[in-house]
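Bug #2210: C-alpha cell dump truncated for F-box domain-containing protein?
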Amino acid sequence: MELGTRRRRRSSEPGPAGGPDYLSALPEDLLLLVLARLGCAAAAARTGLVSRRWRGLWARLRDLAFRGVAFPSLQVALGRVARPPPAVSLLQIRVSDEHLPISDADDVTSVLRAAALLAPEKLVFALPWDPDPTSTEVDLPCFHRATSIVLEWIPFVLRTPAAGAEFPALQTLTLTGCQVDDLGALLSLCPHLRVLRLKGLIWLGDYDWTVHSTSLQELVMDSENLRARPVDIVAPCSSN
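Reproduced locally. Full output below:
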C-alpha cells in the first residue's frame, strides 16, 4: 500500500489522557496500515469505538480476514466493504464451529456472491466440518480476478457456473471436504489453472471422474474416497 503525501488532520477528540488524539490525526493511509496490522476485519471494525475518525475505515482495507464472525452477519459485513478499485488482494472467511449448523444453502450462495462482487485476487472460504453434508446445491459464482481459490468443508454441493462463464486468472484451486457437481465442467472454466489440490473430497454416487486440462502442471489428491474411484487424467506432458 503506497503512503500518500496528504497533510495530517487535526483531531478535536481527546486522547486517552484527555489530551489531543494524535493517533487519529495521522494521515488516512497510515491509519489503514495500523488496521491492516490487526489481521482481522472484525477487530479493525471495533476500532470505530475509539474515535469517530476510525468508524467505517476498516471497509477500505484491501486484505480482509473474517474469522469467527457469525454467519448471518457475513453478507452484511461484505456489503460494507468498498468495492474495487482499488483491488481486494485477499479475502479470507473462516466460520468457527460455534456458528453451526449452517442449514440454509441460499445463505451460503448469497455470501459467495457478495464475496465475488469484491473481486479478490485470493479467496479463502472455509466452513466448519459438518458430519452430515447434504445434496442441496449452492451456486459457485465466477471470481474473475482470483489467481488462487481455497474452499473448505462446504456441506452442500458446489454447482458449477453455466457454460460461457470463466475463472480467467485462476492458477491454483484447492478443494477440501467439498462436493462438486461436475469437476470436469469446473476445470473447463479455468483455462490457466496450474495447480489443483483435492483433499478429503466427498463425492456423490459411484462414478468415475475425469481431470482434463491443457494448462495443469500439478495435481494433488488426498482422500480415502478417491482410492476406489477410477481417475482419468489428461494434462500436458512436462518437457523437463
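Output looks complete on our side. The two ends are 38 Å apart (CA to CA). Marking as cannot-reproduce; reopen if the truncation happens again.
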